């Protein structure tokens, strides 16, 4: 059993992470990544999801103009194809050698027509200039069929399937538009279809504090389900301190140490360097064309004041990709200045758990 990092080690590591900026999307990263919010509609209402989801105006394109956008409140409606294309055009102005686009929501497959249009515009874009372009779809898997999976495989889109475990492990999902049994049956069918398809995919699992000790069980689920890769996450925006944080870290260490017995399963957490969530460097284009760092959307029901503070511009007025993000250190400075003390402490606890997870991964790797 590994010795967990001390509070002093965690704080030191967090300071380093904030000073270094995002390894994934910071100034020194080789990749620039655009997240696209296709819709604010979703079949589920997960207990830990603080995105401002709504079925109001589902299927209706938001105008996407500077005048119709808001930095203060979550917009309604879906991303218009023209807004998505402008955001992709903007990404293509990046000087970085690698580019990435992540289709996000809400549930992006609820706008499959948009998925198709975005992929076509991005893959054939002249501004790519031969650069590698990684495409990823974050989904709950409820909207899949064989034809869609074939298309994703053909386009080279990596599928990030969010399912929080089999049976009781998935209890934190709250079916909203579907009866519970039907939602369960649909994601199980999605796993089977993904396994049979040629698509690249991985399972994304989030555990809330009440399930902090369930990481080894979720790892066992992944092996039973035959998934090729796994990403384990802790819920953010909720108290995750003390015993819950320790249980999460001990479970993470057990999973990473058990990996030798699961040669066919990649666990992304074994690689240090993730952003210390809830702080994250990625830039998102919202359905109204607002460009903001994703914490402004992830936490809009929990910390609504962050939307304005994390906003950098709008696709209708931005001329280049650069300049539409702040460093992690700057985001933390803005966050601390805006949140009341108890929320600042909660936010900090989350970042400290990210830094501690990074240290655990490093310790396990060093012992391997
Ligand atoms: S499936 Fe995703 S977007 Fe939908 S409620 Fe759950 S976390 Fe939120």
Share in β-strands: 5-15%
CATH homologous superfamily designation? Aldolase class I
- Which geometry do the CA atoms define? globular
Residue ranges: pLDDT <50 for 5 or more in a row? Answer: none
Q: Would you give the CATH topology?
A: TIM Barrel
CATH class: Alpha Beta
Number of domains: 1
Bound molecules: iron/sulfur cluster
Instruction: Tally the beta strands.
Output: 10
What kind of sheet is the major sheet?
10 strands, mixed
Protein model, in words:
This protein is of the alpha/beta class. The chain has eleven helices and ten strands. The chain has a ten-stranded mixed sheet. It is globular. The chain binds iron/sulfur cluster.
Please give the structural blueprint.
Layout: H1 7-20, E1 31-37, H2 81-91, E2 98-104, H3 112-123, E3 132-139, H4 146-155, E4 157-162, H5 180-196, E5 200-207, H6 215-225, E6 229-234, H7 242-258, E7 266-267, E8 283-285, E9 290-293, H8 295-298, H9 306-309, E10 311-314, H10 328-338, H11 341-367
Précis, in short:
The protein is an alpha/beta fold. The protein is built from eleven helices and ten strands. The chain has a ten-stranded mixed sheet.
